[in-house]
Amino acid sequence: MPGLETTALCVVAGRGARFEDEARSGWSHLLEHMVFKGAGQRSAMEIVEAIEAQGGQINAATGYERTSFQVRCLAGGLPLGAAVLADLVLAPRLDTQDLTREKQVVGQEIAEAADTPDDLVFEMAQTAAYGDQPLGRSILGTVPSIGGAEPQSLADWRARLYDPAALVVSAAGAVEEAELLDLAEQHFGAATAPDEGATSPDATFQGGESVAAKPLEQANLVFLLPAVGVSHPDYFVLRLFAEILGGGMASRLFQEAREKRGLAYAVDAYSETYADQGVLGVFAGCAAKDATELAKVAAAEIAGLGDSVTAVELARAKAQIKGAMFMMRESPLARAEQTAAQLLLFDRPLPPAEIAAGIERVSLEDLARLGDGLRASGRVAVSVLGPRQAAGAAKAFRQTLFG
């Protein structure tokens, strides 16, 4: 990216919490924590000191289908960043005492999520959608499941999760391709494959309800409908459907639920996509007395959107998605992460012009077809968290959408 003085470097494994069985639930996230406790010849302090001494930053993230390690650094910091990330991925120490302490830390993270309504309500919806499948379990795992991890079993899991066949090294910003290739060969060229890599089972959207009464000021609501995955031809149709439904201040949900009726301060729609499937989601926070009415409004907007989208709405949604895409590409870290994800999914980076063309190809008829498909499944996952008065929102949403 010409003109930049910084570089973003990512090492991304195309595996995450979706690859865990129940006994290993949360191990991928726990492992991401543990590699920072010491790797290669560096201690935990030396890892961060080495990066920060050169003006850089280091971080990591675990998702259902990917685990990412990231360094942001000044121009010239790529050799150190590559060396540190290679140690984290390939040579963590996994000390017994460190593991004991980190289990406590992750246990507090699990407790914090349980105490945060707008985190917990999404986990409830995920479980309602996918049940006891890996996609239905929290990425954080549970205290009992992470408690079962030992240094050797976690080391075995590291070998399967960070299998070199599923690793991508990606950089953007002030970087030369030849240097990156040399560093990748130097630090990852000798990595050996495990006897067996981690595998992900197929998932099925089951649907259901999860309602929990809690003495909160607001009711927190999530509605999920089964949809297509990131590699499906209708991926951009789903993205545009979600944008028109509740992607911004001009969206239908924002205008109807907030501006016209005053039912909620926060209300939006989104799409969450995995390799093979996805969901259309709606989140709202509202007064408990308004939860049922808000659920009806959300369901009615979903039911009627496909057949009533105007050309003006579709054009605005296309502009918004393209704008977000190109804005993201101006961030070196976002570009490096996006390219790594594309390589893992499609075996190649997707040119921006190709993505923009895919967005532009979506028609009003496509949106109508997607809307029909959303309703035809007859399945929905609903989570409601808050005062008891809000409990009726789950039934109201289902009845309004499906009759």
Brief rundown of the structure:
This protein is α+β, with helices and mostly antiparallel strands and 403 residues long.
Descriptive tags:
single chain; 403 residues; alpha+beta; Cytochrome Bc1 Complex, Chain A, domain 1; 2 domains; five-stranded mixed sheet; four-stranded antiparallel sheet
Secondary-structure-derived class = alpha+beta
User: Please, how many domains?
Assistant: 2
What CATH architecture of the largest domain would you give?
Answer: 2-Layer Sandwich
Form type: globular
CATH class of the largest domain: Alpha Beta
Radius of gyration: 22 Å
Give the spatial strand order of the biggest sheet: 7-11-8-10-9
> What portion of residues is helical?
40-55%
Beginning-to-end CA distance, first to last residue: 53 Å
Count every helix, treating DSSP H or I runs of 4 or more residues as helices. Answer: 16
Give unreliable regions as ranges: none
Model description:
It is a single chain. This protein has helices at residues 27-34, 44-52, 78-90, 96-114, 117-130, 143-147, 151-161, 177-188, 235-246, 252-260, 291-305, 311-329, 332-346, 352-360, 364-376, 393-402, and strands spanning 6-13, 38-39, 42-43, 57-62, 67-74, 167-173, 208-213, 219-227, 264-273, 278-286, 381-386. The protein is of the alpha+beta class and 403 residues long. It folds into 2 domains: 6-188, Cytochrome Bc1 Complex, Chain A, domain 1 (2-Layer Sandwich); 208-402, Cytochrome Bc1 Complex, Chain A, domain 1. β4 and β5 (67-74) form a beta hairpin. α9 (235-246) crosses α12, α9 (235-246) crosses α15 and α11 (291-305) crosses α15 (364-376). The longest helix has 19 residues, at 96-114. The mean pLDDT is 96.
